[in-house]
Amino acid sequence: MIELDSALVTAYAPDPAGGADRVVRLLGPVSLQLAERRIAIIGANGSGKSTLARLLNGLVLPASGTVRVDDLDTATDGRAVRRRVGFVFTSPDAQIVMPTPLEDVALSLRRLPLSADERDAAARCALARFGLAERAEVPAHALSGGQRQLLALASVLAAEPDVLVCDEPTTLLDLRWRTVVDDLLAGLDQQVIVVTHDLEAAARADRVLVVDDGLVVFDGEPAPAVEHYRALMAAVRA
Ligand SMILES: Nc1ncnc2c1ncn2[C@@H]1O[C@H](COP(=O)(O)OP(=O)(O)OP(=O)(O)O)[C@@H](O)[C@H]1O
After folding, report:
1. If pLDDT is split at 50, 70 and 90, which confidence band does 101 have?
2. Is the distance from the beta carbon of residue 50 to the nearest atom of ligand 1 less than 6 Å?
3. Is the pLDDT of residue 24 over 80?
4. Distance between CA atoms of 236 and 55, rounded to whole angstroms?
5. What CA–CA distances, in Å, run from 68 to 23, 75, 116, 198?
6. Is 163 touching ligand 1 by the criterion CB < 6 Å?
7. Which class for 203: exposed (0-12), middle (13-18), buried (19 or more C-beta within 10 A)?
8. Strand pairing of 215-220 and 163-167?
9. Which residues pair with residue 24 across a beta bridge?
10. For site-directed labelling of 201, which of 38, 210, 219, 237 has its Cα 20 to 30 A away?
11. What is the pLDDT of residue 175?
12. Residue 19 Cα to chain centre, angstroms
């Protein structure tokens, strides 16, 4: 289980008056225990959703407080945490690093005790699961946006994380690919925590966190969470 205890995220920001950089609060303090299988994080642009998501696998570290994944502290056990908690970025291009899909998935498998042949077979199997068997050896840049998103997911899942954190994984996708990715995420055995602007997707979660101005301002069932978010948005427009 992922557990945040008074986690506070700060950053340095330039002083408009030209003085020394100032410390600004980006998120928190946040205390949460994340045990549900399907959790959605919603909120306005710039509210702190990605910062919260990145805290969960140690991509962002708290300035104070702690974030723990089971027995691991993200501040001191970052590598082990990232093996346990996979992260899918909004843009697949942020995480596809190898020239072909086959090599990209094989890279994710490097920590598993497999021979070269076994790794190749496992990578092909992972690609087939995501409908990419025929595209295993084409240049990754020749894939469509939707196929690249599926490749990013395949690569992250190939490493067999216990938890998958996705930051707006369907934002760049058309309706067909969005449905494919949504269905795929819904069918995973792993715990899935998704940052999303898609309120229909959020409505299917077991639990929804609403983030506003760097704080979790609502935490509960999807219907009241979405209502809370709509009220926040209406207040901004008023
Ligand atoms: N490293 C950083 N240094 C300074 N400010 C940052 C840094 N990272 C994020 N921020 C700021 O923190 C705030 C929250 O950013 P974050 O990316 O978490 O928002 P978000 O809710 O995911 O937004 P969006 O829906 O637009 O993706 C924003 O105002 C952003 O500019």
Report:
1. very high
2. yes
3. yes
4. 27
5. 24, 9, 34, 28
6. no
7. middle
8. unpaired
9. 11
10. 237
11. 87
12. 36
Which mutation among 10, 12, 25, 26 tests ligand 1's pocket best, with the greatest number of atoms within 8 A of CB? Answer: 26
Ligand 1 centroid, distance to 13 Cα (angstroms): 12
Sequence length of the chain is: 238
Question: Angle 145-158/175-186 helices, nearest 10 degrees?
Answer: 10
CA 144, chain centre distance (Å): 21
pLDDT in tens, 39-56: 999 999 999 999 999 999
Domain residue extents for the chain: 2-237
For ligand 1, say whether the CB of 43 is within 6 Å of any of its atoms.
yes
Q: What are phi and psi of 226, to 5 degrees?
A: -65, -40
- Tell which residue, 40, 35, 33, has the closest CA to residue 203: 40
Please state the CATH superfamily assignment of the domain spanning residues 2-237 in this structure. P-loop containing nucleotide triphosphate hydrolases (3.40.50.300)
Identify the bridge partners of residue 140 per DSSP, sorted by sequence position: none
pLDDT band at 21 (very low <50, low <70, confident <90, very high): confident
- Alpha-carbon Rg for the chain, nearest whole angstrom, is 19
β-pair type (215-220, 191-195): unpaired
DSSP state of 142: G
Q: Is 70 left (phi over 0), alpha (psi -120 to 50) or beta?
A: left
Q: Which two tokens stand for residue 218?
A: 């609502």
